[in-house]
Structure formats: C-alpha cells, structure tokens
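Obj: model holo form, ligand = NDP.
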Amino acid sequence: MAAQLIDGKKVAADIRAKLKSEIDELKSKGISPGLAVVLVGENPASKKYVSSKEKTCDEIGIKSFSHKLPESITQKELIDLIDDLNNDENVHGILVQLPLPKYLNEKEIMNRIAPEKDVDGFGPDALGKLVLDEPGFVACTPHGAIKMLDAYNIDPKGKHAVVVGRSVIVGKPLALLLLRKHATVTIAHSRTPDLKETCLGADILCVAVGKAKMITGDMVKEGAAVIDIGINVTPEGKIVGDVDFEPAKERAGYITPVPGGAGPMTIAMLMYNTVLAAKMAAGMKVEV
Ligand code: NDP
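Output (holo structure tokens):
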C-alpha cells in the first residue's frame, strides 16, 4: 500500500497561522519581533531562500531588516555589521544566509552572532544546549523534521531512527532531537560500510546528504516513516530529494515529498525561533 504523504506545506501553514496570532498578541503588548537577514553576493539559490524568508516574515507580521551586500564586502565590515545587529534592540534574530563566499571566514562570522539572536541555531551555544537538553534555539531544518513527525503522531520513542548525513546544520542536531524523543539512533555517513543494511533497519529514516535519489526503494523498510531533507536540482531543472520517491512511497508507511516537505518547515521554524527570541528578549517565560 502506498505511504501516507507527510504534507510539510500544510504543517508549516498551521505553524505560521499559530505564530501570526501570537505575534498579534505580542504587538498588542508593544513587542514587535524583528529578523535581520544578511545576504552576501548573487548566489541565485541563496537569493531565492532569502526572498522566501522575507516574504514569510511579511505574511505573519515579523519585521525583516534586509542587508544585501556586494561580494566586495570585507571580513571586518561584515563583523561590524553583525556587531551592530547584536546591539540593535529591534532585531531579535540574525540570519546570515549560507554559504558565504569562500574569501570570507564563515566560522568567525557565524560565531559573532550573539547567542540570544542565533535563530538559525548553528552556533556553539545553541548546539551545546541541544546536547545538554537545555532550552535554546534548535536548528530549523531538524526541528521542522521533528514537527512533521509530531503532526502525524509518529512517536520516535522505542523506534530505531537512522539519520543519513552528519552535518552540523542537519544530521547531528536531528540525531540529538530523535534521541531526546527516546529513539535508538544510528547516524550513517559517507564511511558507513553497508548503507542499505543500515537503512533497512530504520523505523524512521531521515536523509540529509545532497545526492539525488541515492536512497532507492529497496533501502526502505516496509512501513517506515521517511523524512527526505535533500534538495537537488536534476539536469532537467527538476527539484528532487535524496530519496527515490516513487518506489520508496510503495514501501514506506509515511513519506515527505520534495518539494513540499522539509523545505517549508525550515522557514516556519525560523519564524518560530524569531518569535521565541523576541519573547526571551522581553523577559517572557517561554516553553521550548
Ligand atoms: P553536507 O554536505 O554538509 O552533509 C552531507 C552529509 O552526507 C555528510 O555527513 C556526508 O558524510 C554524507 N554523505 C555524503 N555522501 C554519502 C553517501 N554516499 N552515503 C552516506 N552519507 C553520505 O549537507 P547538509 O547537511 O548541509 O545538507 C544535506 C542536504 O539537505 C542537501 O541536499 C541540502 O540542500 C539539504 N538541505 C535542505 C534544507 C531544507 O530546508 N529542506 C536545509 C538544509 C539542507 P561525511 O560527513 O562522511 O562527508
């Protein structure tokens, strides 16, 4: 039987609607959440992501402060801008769109973002809190993956979750979140000897590699929940995930489409973190 589709677009729309009413309430108390968006250069994919983020801010009432900078910007100028944004009380969250051009020191720039404004959740403070199970900003894409499981009542407790990919922005935090939800977690990567065998053991299979259709249908356990985070453009210009969707769908119990799965969730969780940052800045009690 074909899998039930996990509709990331719908889950994200529900989250945005809830945030919008929270933001209206915050505004009535004089708190207006603000997100600074920093883009360097002309990378078309980055420009597209930034404009979707700004559009979503507008839709739900978050003020976006746009900083579109030429590739001639120096490391020092960018650090100075981050310092200004750190000190600007109208800015609750700072997003630096990655990747930055190679000549810039990305790590130094990302680490300069004040921990209380690190709404991407990529910095050492946010990641440390995740490891320590303390409240903090959770990286948006893995957080979105967990929210999709929640929305379909897929409880990781006691299940075997396999995360393919171990990046700092997706794979590692996602594995920690699944662990937090009491799954038994395996992290697979490019040196995992028998990926097919590993994936076949997964009740929950999450894939964040960046290789089109690398997870074939015969790597999916019957009835598994499959969360495909990959975004790949085929030579024909089509966007596909890391999972070969059609055959995988015939074996999985649940599956996310690409596009329309993890992508919209990432932006929704960025908005969620920005609202969280605004509440924390106002000294409000927050639930994370
Ligand atoms: P990275 O390139 O940072 O990490 C890729 C991971 O995949 C690495 O851990 C790598 O292993 C592993 N890998 C590579 N080849 C294989 C292989 N043959 N078998 C098993 N593992 C392999 O990518 P990201 O985590 O940043 O992104 C992954 C994908 O998710 C991309 O397609 C990206 O576009 C997408 N993405 C989507 C987002 C969204 O909003 N939906 C947001 C962020 C990312 P090793 O560590 O050993 O090299």
